[in-house]
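Input sequence (239 aa), recorded before submission:
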Amino acid sequence: MRLLVVEDDKDLNRQIATALVQAGYAVDRAYDGEEGWFLGDTESYDAIVLDLGLPKKDGIAVLKDWRAAGRTTPVLILTARDRWSDKVQGFDVGADDYVAKPFHIEEVLARLRALLRRATGHASSELTCGPVRLDTRSGRVLVDGNQIKLTSHEYRLLSYLMHHAGRVVSRTELVEHLYDQDFDRDSNTIEVFVGRLRKKLGIDIIQTMRGLGYVVAAPENGQSPGKTGKPDAGALKNS
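Predicted structure, token format:
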């Protein structure tokens, strides 16, 4: 999952971005409204943290322009606690949620997890496919109850695919949503990460759709771990 943080307070921007990276997200940062608007308008993000009191272009104008252009990315706005009118105006122009300053970073993380779940049709913080469970709160991945240790990039890949379980995700989409702006993007690395994930999971829930991309699907009944079968969207579930 790739996120954008638009906040002019450099210390607060860094604190939020650091916490998000530690939580397993790829993060881009902007420090004024013009830069934030441009990134949100031209890059692919799964969610955006947007401060309202921005220089050059205020957050309300940024969000209003995104929505007018058809950008549907979930947006969490940051606002001063005593500016209730900003909250109302933010919702009116298309915000999905808000956090009042000062705030605990854990609340920002929890609200972003909720936005990401809703955007992909999930009701629970735990994503399940066959014997594989991914807990978005703790970042833990378990297979048949046994925890599997993944690198940050492997976790991001599995998390994105499981959030979009049952849908074919192209390599291009994965590259756009797994890496921050400064990462040296190469779609070939996706194949490497998929291979590593399959080996670590020990069961092939990541199916290759030749010429199209990948889809997460539970193995067909009776299939042995590691063998590729046809995706079974009906076997997918989210507990």
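Checked by second reader. Confidence is low (pLDDT under 50) at residues 222-239.
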